[in-house]
Design brief:
The protein is mainly alpha-helical. It has four helices and six strands; from the N terminus they run E-E-H-E-H-H-E-E-E-H. The strands form three sheets. It has a two-stranded antiparallel ribbon. Strands 3-4 form a two-stranded parallel ribbon. It starts with a strand and ends with a helix.
Length: 117
Amino acid sequence: GMKTNMGDPHRNLVDFAHVPVVKRLTRMPVCVDPSHSVGSRAASPDGILDVMHVTAQGVLAGANMVLVDFHPAPTQALVDGPQALLLKELPHFLEDVQIAREAYLKRVSLVQKYRDG
């Protein structure tokens, strides 16, 4: 994310429109960092953690990698504790990423279907 002076609720701004652009211009894998973008463990009204929403958005935009903080005891972490997910949340996180990845792959297949005729 890009550092902003907008403050809360999120400390960094993520522009997902740049994920495919950077991939196209550099031909390099792109990594998004949802933890540092969100900076907390806040959840939306649907109960999904903001970190998970941002991760899914990055994956749907075509990010090759995500960097998310996990810690067994976030309150005791030396750095990044407020945004760290619990280790017990890892299975849920991975399932959620898989859903987003499958949606991305369906989008890629759809493009190929209509491009190839």
